[in-house]
Amino acid sequence: VTVTVGSSPITVTPDTATGINGATGQANVVNALNGDQINGVAATTTNSVLSVDPLLPVPAQLTFNASTGDVSVVAGTPAGTYSFGYQICEALNPANCKLSTVTVTVAQLPATVTGTVFLDVNGDGLITGDPNAGPGYTVELVDAGGAIIGTAVTGATGSYSITTTPGTGYSVIFRSPSGGVIGTKTNVTLLPGTTVANQDQPVDPSGIVYNSVTRAPVAGASVSLTTASGTPLPAACLLAGQQNQITTASGAYRFDINPGAAAACPVGQTEYRIQIVTPAGYFQGPSTTLLPQAGPLNSVTCPADAVAGGACNVAAIDTAPTNGSPAIYYTNFTVGAGSRDIVYNHLPIDPLPAVPATFTKTAGVATAKRGEIVTYTIEAKNVAFTPARFVDVMPAGFDFVTGSALANGGAITPTLAGNTLTFNSLTPNAAHTITLTLKLVVNANVVPGPQINHAQFINPTNGAVVANAQASVEVIAEHVFDCGDIIGKVFDDKNRNGYQDDGELGLPGVRVVSVKGELITTDKNGRFHVGCADIPDADIGSNFILKLDTRTLPTGYRVTTENPRSVRLTRGKVTKLNFGAAISRVIRLDLTDKLFAGEGTVSAQIQAIVDQVAEILSKEPSTLRLTYYVGADGADVAKQRLDAVQSLINRTWKKQRGRYELPIETRLVGVK
Question: How far apart are alpha carbons 48 and 93 in whole angstroms?
């Protein structure tokens, strides 16, 4: 008979046999458990005797009752197969016996370890009264050789359970949802059929990373621990996976320092700093609107303990402070062997503003002279990263005033390369603004006119130009060095020679005009002055044009000089430019159709008249006015005839060498 024995005794009906005065039986029992009893593996009658086979005795792991035929497994028996022999003999004939064997296979009960991962609010290491840590924590059961023989993940209540093979020297390792080890229990013994309960793991939540505006936890923030100088701690100084840990939806982070594990984390009290790399959508580093406490925080004395006793509670609760309540936290601490756990050190980070960054540059003055100092202000608002970089390109001839630069009120020294100033490591203030002021001096070699100063706002992480800005300052020309002045006179050119001779007086109230639209009126002596008419080219000078407005001449006066007039200006020099005008004698010649034999024919009569007029004109400078009265021949014919007469007069006049330049006016009368 093959018998499977479970966790409680069962009755075995033995085989029956003949040939012996009584019944015999045997049983092969498998999967017996420690302490099980197998009833009746052998049975006798009043005519037979049951005894153990001396050649195959009962092992120490089993007990055998020869009176009842019952077999029991001794408690604590290791798993294995155990056998012994027995014999049933006739009472009256002891030599007549039947031999049988009992085989019992012992299988051990599994063992179980259970517990809860909880938030150790008061830092006493006990679960009493503390909330559970929630789901997502991984628990590993590891044997003495380091092999993982069982795992579990905590559920909503933070509890776990692992069932496995019994043994000794086991360890239970607890990991956070991000994978870092948060605690270990060693030398755990699991006996068969037992449950080792209350293997709880307290979590000292160092704190959570949260949004400084909404106060909600932030996932995706990378949190690391450094030395006081900012050097990241080696992995040996912390539990596995804690350096550069990434926050999950809970925003929680935690550090467990192993004093003495490396030179960077000695046994004695040592200062450490928290470093945060924020996820997308946040300014880098801790909040600049909710500032940290002045540190470092002494983890032994904990002068700001929010909950007396146990851990050093920076805050009293395990969640971010609500809006309006104090946001107490530290970014540096002194920790060493024997220090209290620092918990609820919640770290705020600032979200990026909804509006884009702005970048402006302004000059303190609109105009400047050589030798003067100009103050410039460069400002970037809603800065979404830190540090930042400003690059300022100075106009040619401007120099930086050493020591004049201030960034948000603090002195800063730029890097100078040619006419380029570079300001590195600029940090926004609490309003996410960078305001930079600097002073430039205007040197003697600056060219007068608008001088533009350019600036760039740069993200040094990727070198990208975020924005550009510029400011313009007008450098004022100085007469002594830069200007070309003009002085002149509008005179009464009585002899009409174009030059002011003795006795030729000026004409007051006459207006001259520049090409820039400047209007200059002569004084009572006919004089005018154009101050700094232009800034001539420094090497070759420049042309300048003025024109006399003939409408402003006295009645009957006409210009006797070139109009407009162009002169060459030189820097720092005064140039003279005069206009002549005189009362002009007008000689009038009237023409009609009757003087012409054909459309364009000039008759001998007309030639005689022209000769006579030329003689009159030669006696005194005059203006000739030709007037044609249009008759029945029409305007087109009249125009041809008038042109023919004008040509004849020009030819005749040219023969009069040494004469003045004859002005001729033409008019058609009677044209509709």
Answer: 9
Q: Would you list the DSSP string of 404-444? A: --EETTEE---EEETTEEEEEEE---TTS-EEEEEEEEEPT
Structure-block tokens of residue 290: 């909710």
The SS3 call for residue 478 is coil
**Span 537-541, average pLDDT:** 80
| pLDDT band of 656, cuts 50, 70, 90 | confident
The DSSP bridge partners found for residue 387 are none
- Phi first, then psi: what are they for 142, rounded to 5°? -120, 135
Q: In sequence order, what are the beta bridge partners of 543?
A: 568
**pLDDT tens, residue by residue, 157-195:** 888 999 988 888 899 988 876 566 667 788 888 887 778
The alpha carbon torsion through 643, 648, 649, 652 (nearest 10 deg) reads 160
Q: State the Cα–Cα distance between residues 300 and 259, nearest whole angstrom.
A: 14
Dihedral over Cα of 152, 153, 154, 156: its sign: negative
Measured distance CA(381)–CA(28) in Å, rounded: 88
DSSP helix/strand/coil, 252: strand
- Angle between helix 635-654 and 604-619 (nearest 10): 50
Question: pTM for the whole thing?
Answer: 0.39
Supply the DSSP symbol for 284: S
According to DSSP, residue 385 is labeled S
Whether the Cβ atoms of residue 104 and residue 34 lie closer than 8 Å to each other: no
Single-letter amino acid code for the residue at 424: N
Q: Are strands 80-90 and 48-52 parallel, antiparallel or unpaired?
A: antiparallel
What single DSSP character describes residue 561?
Answer: S
One-letter amino acid at 5 equals V
Backbone φ and ψ of 610, nearest 5°? -65, -45
Average of per-residue pLDDT across 69-87 = 77
Collapsing DSSP to helix, strand or coil, 129 comes out as coil
Strand partners, 575: 486
Strand order in the sheet with 388-393: 367-368, 464-475, 449-459, 388-393, 420-426, 415-417
Question: How deeply is 411 buried, as exposed, middle or buried, from its count of CB atoms within 10 A (0-12, 13-18, 19+)?
Answer: exposed
Indicate the pairing of strand 2-4 with strand 420-426: unpaired
Alpha helices in 310-366, H assignment, sequence order = none
